[in-house]
Amino acid sequence: MKWLEEYNEELRQRQAKSAEANWAQSTNITDENAAKVVDVTMELTKWSLKKMEEGKKFDTSGFSDDVKRQFGMITKSGSSSDEEKTRKVAEIGTELEKIYSTSTACLPSGTCLKLDPDLEGILAKSRDYDRLTWAWLSWRDAVGPPMKDKYAEWVALMNEGAQENGYADKGVIWRGAYEMPNDTLEEMVDGVWEKVKPLYTQLHAYVRRKLSETYGEDKVLTTGHIPAHLFGNMWAQQWNNIYDIVVPFPDQPAIDVSDTMVEQGYDPLRMFKTAEAFFVSIGLRPMPQTFWDKSMITRPDDREVVCHGSAWDFYHLPGDTDVRIKMCTKVNQEDLQTIHHEMGHVEYYLTYEDQKTLYRGGANPGFHEAVGDTIALSVNTPGHLKKIGLLQNIEGNQGTEFQINELLKMALSKVAFLPFGLLIDKWRWRVFSGDITPDKFNTEWWNLRMKYQGIKPPVERTDEDFDPGAKYHIPSGTPYIRYFFSFVAQFQFQQALCEEAGHDGPLHTCDIYQSKKAGAKLKNMLSMGESKPWPEAMKAITGQDKLDPSAILKYFEPLEKWLREQNKNEELGWE
Ligand SMILES: C[C@H](N[C@H](C(=O)O)[C@@H]1CCCN1C(=O)[C@@H](N)CC(=O)O)C(=O)N1CCC[C@H]1C(=O)O
Ligand SMILES: [Zn+2]
């Protein structure tokens, strides 16, 4: 129908304009660019509210399911009609992201360190307990206090917008992206967590023992919570950087390829080309020329930018495609993984670009997060790393010890992440609902970190601090449960694609490289975009219609058995 076609085309143009303004600010942080982001956000919000009122006038009862779905999207908004409130929300948003992206921690000598690459580099590489404490604390001191009151105001304004539209709070709108009946998203993910918690608990006990041996029993007890700054990551969200401390069989051939990448003269561009070659090998699209012309793949030295990696869709018409990645790339395996993650978003943008604008999105946000990571599960197999020349001294299929090393390294990224992926929005949903008030922001943050991850702060924290602000997605207002969904779903996707590719043997050795059949199955799901409720997309690729942890548990089964043996005399857990 005409009104709807016009809506989709105008929405496309406005989203393109919004992406351009946000790109300009993210790749050159200035007050002028921030002001333009606020103006464009105001325009887009005003237009959306106007169209929402128009949309509500239609009697959709006789329309097709597809048209009803589009009207359902159009007539939902969480924005306030009060322009001043909308402006304030947008302004605080740019201020918080600026604090995160430009703050530094200064040494007594006067040298000031940035988060990326300096402070993150210390957390990844240093094994000096006190230096780790300094970097961990300095980042939080730099960004937390300046954000705290702004964040509280931001939450209040976002809630007012939600309540003006009949929602209890902003959290209801955020969970709504998963279209779960009776708002049962939290119940669903809690059920998945209960099933994977035993595996996490085994990994936690094993790593605690290794960290205690490394730093001494006085610094790391072999019972209870583990200090949060010893995991090789500023947020203890993934523990792959301490693989060298915890490796089960050190005399087995190495499988971390960061050093080899440097030795072989890899630069960021070659890392991007390597990732692109995998996607193309299974029949997905190469990056368009504009991608190479307009992306920002290294940190510029003449201006402030948002370094946190991201993928961008400029909502152009097919044939005039404009998709980009912004990333301050470093030459190591962790950034090679991130490049695959971001390029997975780009392949999704490319595959659904023919859809109506309203449907140019993931089946749910978790699907969008899972595309690149699924591909990276193949890329990170020793077999594939050997195929592309990054691993030399390994023969065909390796013995049990080698496979335990391989599974442990993958678990440090994937299993370690699960409680982190779950707790971020548990905290935010309770902040939005008013259950966690500003005077308790930090205390409740640490209660959740202790409860779900079994970690504790290395130094005393108070409610004067605002540690949530130290994690990008909080000041940038990006929901996070999408990553928990993805870290479980990506193993379901991999299992389905490996079956399609005719792989036999354990799932963790599967590499779908060059399998056009697997690629076609993935592409078929990606092309749906947001046109159907996500269980239908899940069914299209896996045959199931649920988020099901049996695939990740199957993948790590040999490791869990080995860990249970290792942990026989450990006091499991932390509660
Ligand atoms: C490194 C990655 N950056 C995000 C991502 O790629 O998801 C960026 C920032 C927030 C959204 N975003 C996007 O690019 C979106 N525009 C993509 C889209 O929705 O189209 C990230 O934050 N990750 C990766 C794994 C865990 C998590 C973390 O590092 O904690
Ligand atoms: Zn992502």
From TrEMBL:
One CC-aspect GO term: membrane
GO BP annotation list: proteolysis
Binding locations of Zn(2+) 2: 341, 345, 369
Note accompanying the cofactor annotation: Binds 1 zinc ion per subunit.
Residues bearing attached sugar chains per UniProt: 28
GO MF: carboxypeptidase activity; metal ion binding; metallopeptidase activity; peptidyl-dipeptidase activity
Disulphide linkage map: 106-112, 307-328, 498-510
EC number: 3.4.-.-
Signal sequence, renumbered to the chain: none
InterPro entries in the record: Peptidase_M2
Keyword Nucleotide-binding: no
Keywords of this entry: Carboxypeptidase, Disulfide bond, Glycoprotein, Hydrolase, Metal-binding, Metalloprotease, Protease, Signal, Zinc
Gene3D superfamilies: 1.10.1370.30
Binding site for Zn(2+) 1: 341, 345, 369
Reactions catalysed according to its record: angiotensin I + H2O = L-histidyl-L-leucine + angiotensin II; substance P + H2O = substance P(1-8) + Gly-L-Leu-L-Met-NH2; Met-enkephalin-Arg-Phe + H2O = L-arginyl-L-phenylalanine + Met-enkephalin; goralatide + H2O = N-acetyl-L-seryl-L-aspartate + L-lysyl-L-proline
UniProt binding sites for chloride: 178, 482
Cofactor(s) this protein cannot do without: Zn(2+); chloride
Enzyme class label: hydrolase
Location of the active site: 342 (proton acceptor 1), 342 (proton acceptor 2), 473 (proton donor 2), 473 (proton donor 1)
PANTHER family in the cross-refs: ANGIOTENSIN-CONVERTING ENZYME
Family in the record: Belongs to the peptidase M2 family.
Protein name stated in the entry: Angiotensin-converting enzyme
